Amino acid sequence: PVHRVVNPKHFDERAVSLHIYSRPFDTCVVYSPEQGTCGVINLHYTTVYGKPS
Known about the structure:
- By secondary structure, the chain is mostly beta strands.
- The protein has a domain at 20-48.
- It is built from no helices and four strands.
- The strands form two sheets. A two-stranded antiparallel ribbon has the order 1-2. Strands 3-4 form a two-stranded antiparallel sheet.
- A hairpin with a 2-residue loop joins strand 3 (47-48) and strand 4 (51-52).
- The radius of gyration is 15 Å and the shape is flat.
- The protein starts with 26 loop residues before the first strand and ends with a strand.
């Protein structure tokens, strides 16, 4: 499913979106609402088991 995360300006506060996935994925499909298309992108990790990669 496609979902959108927004932080309405009238809230006047910072927001955090945390996405946690169970296994290491190398790619994912992303949707561009501006273009109305989707495509596969390569993912990278900043940590592996809590240590910088």
